[in-house]
Structures are given as C-alpha cells and as structure tokens.
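Complex 572.
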Amino acid sequence: SAPPLTISLLDYGAGNVRSVRNALLQCGYPIIDISTPQQILDAQVIVFPGVGSYHCAMDVLQQRGWEEPLKQYLKADRPYLGICLGMQTLFESSEETTVGDGASEVRGLGIIPGKIVKFDASTRAVPHIGWNGMIPHQSSPVLRYLTRKDDDDMEQKEHEVYFVHSFFAPLEERDAPWVLTRTTYDGQEFVSSVQKGNVCASQFHPEKSGKAGLGFLRGFLESVQDGTLSNTKPLPPTTQHTQLVKRVVVALDVRTNDAGDLVVTKGDQYDVREKDDTNTAENGKGGVRNLGKPVGLAQRYYDEGADEIAFLNITSFRQGVIDDMPMLRVLEEASKGIFVPLTVGGGIRDYKDEASGKVYGALEVASRYFRAGADKVSIGSDAVYAAEEYYKSGGKKTGETSIESISSVYGVQAVVISIDPKRVYIASPENVADSNHVVVKMEEDDKKGPNGEQYCWYQCTVKGGREERNICAVSVAKATEALGAGEIMLNCIDSDGQCNGFDLPLMKAVSNAVSIPVIASSGAGKAVHFTDVFKKTNVKAALAAGMFHRKEVEIMDVKRYMEESGIRARLI
Ligand code: 1PR
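Predicted structure with 1PR bound:
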C-alpha cells in the first residue's frame, strides 16, 4: 500500500492550533510544521487552521513569503484543507477591518470569487457560536463519515458541527462550483464548506466537532491517501434549512482538596464542603466534596455527548494562576482526547508575583491556557470590576481591561463572562435603593423571598460569592458585552446545587438585555429544567454540574427529552 501520508501544517503562530494537531494525531497521521516557502511547494497535503483575524493571517502569509507558493499550490489543485480563516482567506477579500482602520477591506488569496461579510447583529446573536447542521450541494468522499439516519423520518442527515465566527461567505450563484455544504443561521444562509477538486475547506471547526468532526478529517485524509478526493458530484438542489441547536454544557468546578489533590467538587450555593464528616478536614468541618478527577470526568462527559465542557478553578482568588501548573496540565491532558470546546475559568486577571515583583497581564495568563488547549477563558471577578469602572467613566473603553486585551488578540468568541449573582429581595420595585439595579418579578413560589417578597434584583459577587458588589447582573452583562465579551455564563448562587431549575427571571432579564449568547447555569436537576429555560428565555445554552456528576440524569436523556419537546439538540 502507499506510504502513509504526512500532513504539512501551516501554523502561523496566532492562537491555539493545539486542538487541530491533537485531532490530526487522533486520525493517525504524522505532522510536520511548515517553516519555509519551499515546504509549501513540497507538501503532500496542507492543513491551514486559521485562527485570529483575517488581516493578521494575510499579513503573516505575506511577511513569511508564503502567499505566492500557497497560491501556486492551490492553483495546481493539490490537496488542501483550510479551517475557518483557512477557508475565508481562499476568497478575494473580507469586510473584516484592520484595527484602527475605518473601512478598509482586507485582500485574500483570491482563489474563490466573492467577499467575506459580517452577520447582521441587529436580528441575531453574533458571533454564530455552536452546533449547526449542513446541507450538501455535492456528494464528496470528505463527507462519507458525516451522515446519520434521522430517528423519525429515516432520512439521511449530516451530523451537526461546531461553528464560531462573526463573518461568513454568502451563498452566491457564481461560487456554485465551490459550494460543498451550506448552513442557515437565523435566516441567513452561508457557505459552511467548499470543495473543488483537491482543494477543500470548512467554516466550521472539525477539531471541535466531536466524532463527526474527526469523521470529516478522516474522510478528507483517507481520500487524499487513496487518491479519490476529487470524486465529487453535484447534488440536486433542495430547499432544506438547518438550525443552530441548543447546547448542553457540563461544568467541572475544580479545586485542591484537603489532601492536596486536584479534584472536581460541587457546591450547594457555592459551599463545597460536606455537611457531615465525609472527607473530614483537619479543622473539623466537612471535607471538600470529591466527585472525581478532572480529566477522567471530562473525558466521560465528552464520550456521553456534552456539547462543551467548562473547567472552573474555584479557589483561584487565593493564589495566582500564572504558575498554576496542575490546571494547565488538566487542559493539556483533556485536550488530547476531547474534541468539543473547552472553557477554563478562575483567576483570569492581572497578577503580581509577590516574590519577584513581576506583573503578568491577564492576556499572558489567558495565553497560557489557550496554548494548553483551552478554546475560551471565562472571567468572573475581574469582569465585575471592569464593569464598575466602565460605568464610573461614563462608558469609556480603556483598552486595558482583561476583556479587551484578550478579545482583541484571540477574538470576542474566546472571552466568556462568568457572573455569580445573588438575589436581593424587595417588597416592591420602588424599594430598590439604586435605580441602576434592574428589578424583576419572581413568578414561582419557591423562588420568592423569606417574607413572601415578589421582587428582587440580582447582586453581583466576586471571589467565588464571598464579596458582594453594588452592581446588578444585567449591568455587568451589558458593560462586558460593550467591552468585547463574546458570551455570558450566567450562574445564580441561590439556585446553585438546589436542583429546582434555573432562575428563569434572571435568565430572561439578562438574555434579553444583550445580543451575545447567554449560557444558563445553576439549579438544573431534571431534563425538564432544560426545556423550560430554552422555551421561556432567550438563552442559547444551558449548563449543569451536580446532576451529571451524581449520575442522576444522563446527558443524552436531556437531549432526547429536548428533541421530544421540539427543541433541537445535537444527538450523537
Ligand atoms: O473570579 O475570575 O477567579 O472566577 C472564579 C470562577 O469560579 C467563577 O466562574 C465562579 O463562578 C467560580 N466559582 C467560584 N467559587 C465557586 C464555588 O462553587 N464555591 N463555582 C465557583 C461556581 C458555578 C457553576 C456551577 C453551576 C451549576 N460554580 O459552574 O457548576 O452553578 O451547578 P449545578 O448544576 O450543580 O446547580 P474568577
């Protein structure tokens, strides 16, 4: 048989391509890194996982003298797989502007006619984040592992794949020979993958699309290997559309227990110590609840169908994380076998090393996590401080907050804000002390105040719920969106660990106030809690911890229940 293929990886050093490497390795092919123009011309197959911004990718290609050989390689119809920006740069230009530069369009490689444009954010949440389907326009060996039988109508369907982008290639008649699949995002159709001959590229991230994504990579690489890659055929047009599915996220709260081991724990209203003498600590209180090892548990949730996994370092306020090797190791290990997005939170802020006096910026802290395999970082306490400053200055952006510094380098989709609010009950809306606090009405009896109060505002806390601040959850969400956050993870300390369902008034208030996606968190105990929050609020994802850790409900039970209730979920 033919000698095994070696993949030439075009890694131009922006952001994290560790997961692409891991996914290619998982498919069983060796990788070499391209470092000279000649290596482009000599490659058997090139994989170009674009991350960061369009102009940055094009600048690097030019500066390193890679643009011309790459064009030559592509025009000669040699095997190529572009991912995300690796697809967008194949087009003539992009609306994505260079920093500080009003309206200039950035030129691309010009292999495919047409221009990359931005989603209209006035009618939908932007970025387009999450799992969406694909409608094939051609049959291709690349898609051979991607179809599944639909349960109801026995129709062949493409598996959902993971997208995260604000810009897209519009579906235009003249690009028709290139379109491999199309996808719909809230009424907007776009090109989700292209293929002509041996040149192929995807807007979605196969390396983050679970087993379907690995199947796409395998389909591509195997057909390069056996020489069948260009065996494509146009398919008859259909009027089908796809839909972004609601995500089910699992969170792992991680900390060191009293014996010094890093464990997954889970609190009741943020108290992670056992109520009895289980795992008893030296000080006589209950020990830290130990639900297992972070990497092993995360791998289990990936295998069981989690759409996304978040690791939260919940005691990071006590120590700096710049040297937090155990947590970096967790990311490194987890990203080897988990091919869905990984978020890491806790301690993403500026940090001063007391011993040396050296100051590390939040960007440096975040970069270490990205390099270790994280796709997003979540910012808790520091986001509250940034929001306070934002309002104090009358809505000025300094460019110096952790949110701004990280999102300007890694993109808004890489910055999640974790909000930890507590209810402050009031008898009537007039009783609110500060007119900036958004007041909501509690409709369910079990969420009313101790004296039957029907109203409350949601007070933000910092340091894992230990310190209250005079700012409400809606205000923090709006300010952090303005500063460049891409997503909100919305907890509720009152509901955390209670298994009584998500705090719907809070979820409604925040998801209606911002246009970035909101992940509902805290309080899930049954599948119906997920369908409730999806039906009654605007959240795009829902997160649970305890019910999955205790194996009370399986992830796929939740998803099947969602589908039965008419809410699309990713079934594996
Ligand atoms: O402030 O940037 O260092 O971030 C600290 C991070 O750690 C924040 O994301 C904060 O939410 C988290 N955190 C701090 N202390 C705790 C604690 O529990 N003592 N965990 C904590 C927060 C929230 C969710 C939880 C859901 C779902 N955990 O992740 O898992 O509430 O739980 P459930 O489904 O069992 O109800 P910074």
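The radius of gyration is 24 Å.
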